[in-house]
Specification:
Oligomer: heterodimer
Helix content of chain B: 25-40%
Largest interface: A-B, 23 and 27 residues
Radius of gyration of chain A: 13 Å
Strand order of the largest sheet of chain A: 1-2-3-4-5
Radius of gyration of chain B: 15 Å
CATH topology of chain B: Heat Shock Protein 90
Shape of chain B: globular
Strand content of chain B: 25-35%
CATH superfamily of chain A: STAS domain
Order of helices and strands of chain B: EHHEEHHEE
Largest sheet of chain A: 5 strands, mixed
Strand content of chain A: 25-35%
CATH topology of chain A: Transcription Regulator spoIIAA
Structural class of chain B: alpha+beta
Distance between the termini of chain B: 29 Å
Number of helices of chain A: 4
Largest sheet of chain B: 5 strands, antiparallel
Number of helices of chain B: 4
CATH superfamily of chain B: Histidine kinase-like ATPase, C-terminal domain
Distance between the termini of chain A: 38 Å
Shape of chain A: globular
CATH class of chain B: Alpha Beta
CATH architecture of chain B: 2-Layer Sandwich
CATH architecture of chain A: 2-Layer Sandwich
Number of strands of chain A: 5
CATH class of chain A: Alpha Beta
Number of domains of chain A: 1
Strand order of the largest sheet of chain B: 1-2-3-5-4
Helix content of chain A: 40-55%
């Protein structure tokens, strides 16, 4: 499959973004837009589910970096879930596990948000 | 002495991010053909994406009329990709390992790609001659790799 897509599901205060396909320098604007929209709507408890993401480059990682501070300042967080081993490896190479909470399953990320209500 | 046979491939493409996917596929396929397993081929195509993204953003500043030349040369031991542009060249200071917390604070991420390239490949070498020819060479050795 070619291309990239973002879909969104809101449950109570938490918004989950589902990314699929390839997140590279060409497709990052779509992901940035989705995060900007969430911030505008003041929905800052964000889970990014990467179950269907096949590929990420540093341009994609840069989007996470670019929004995390603003979201945390507003009392929210970006948590990640369902990374394939291939995608996790890229996050790991750049030291992301020290800065972001990464979960095997989306429900674990939701539980974590609910614990810190 | 037995002569080592080298395979050589070359593509030239407009400096546009939409071409990254095609470039990754091209390099990935050649890496598999050269003897890498899929993990090694994934690493090479990611490193090439990072190098081309840097050229598109920094050397060409998104000017899609510029072209990028990509040469792949390999034998049974060594897989090399040479990426050539005629743009501005970029600041070698970016070659330092980025401080992630600083990047987070400043929402600046340009150096992440260069750090990734150096991690994924065995050798990364630059030569700058802004306006006439800038080159980055990425090398990965085939024996004993993933």
């Amino acid at each position: 499959m070619s291309g990239f897509d973002v879909s969104r599901n809101d449950v109570d205060q938490i918004s989950v973004l589902y990314l699929s396909g390839f997140l590279d320098a060409h497709t990052t604007p779509k992901f940035e837009h989705a995060l900007q929209t969430l911030i505008k709507e003041d929905r800052v408890k964000v889970i990014v589910n990467l179950k269907d993401l096949d590929y990420i480059s540093s341009a994609g990682l840069g989007v996470f970096m670019g929004f995390i501070e603003e979201i945390r300042e507003k009392g929210g967080d970006i948590k990640l879930s369902n990374l394939s081993p291939k995608v996790f490896k890229v996050f790991d190479l750049l030291g992301f596990p020290a800065l972001y909470q990464i979960f095997d399953a989306e429900d674990e990320a939701k539980t974590k948000f609910n614990e810190t209500k | 002495m037995k002569k080592i046979r080298k395979s050589r491939y070359k593509i030239r493409f407009p400096s546009r991010t939409e071409n990254l996917e095609v470039v990754r596929d091209f390099v990935h396929r050649l890496a598999l053909k050269a003897g890498f397993k899929s993990e090694g081929a994934d690493q090479i195509s990611l490193a090439v994406d990072e190098a081309c993204t840097n050229v598109i953003k920094h050397a060409h500043q998104y000017n899609a009329r510029r072209m990028i030349d990509l040469n792949v040369i390999y034998d049974d031991k060594k897989f090399e990709i040479i990426i050539t542009d005629k743009g501005k060249g970029f600041d070698p200071k970016l070659l330092e390992k980025p401080d992630l917390s600083k990047y987070m604070h400043e929402a600046k991420m340009g150096g992440l790609g260069i750090h990734l390239m150096k991690t994924l490949m065995d050798e990364v070498n630059y030569s700058f001659n802004p306006g006439s020819k800038n080159q980055v060479s990425l090398v990965k050795y085939i024996h004993g790799t993933a």
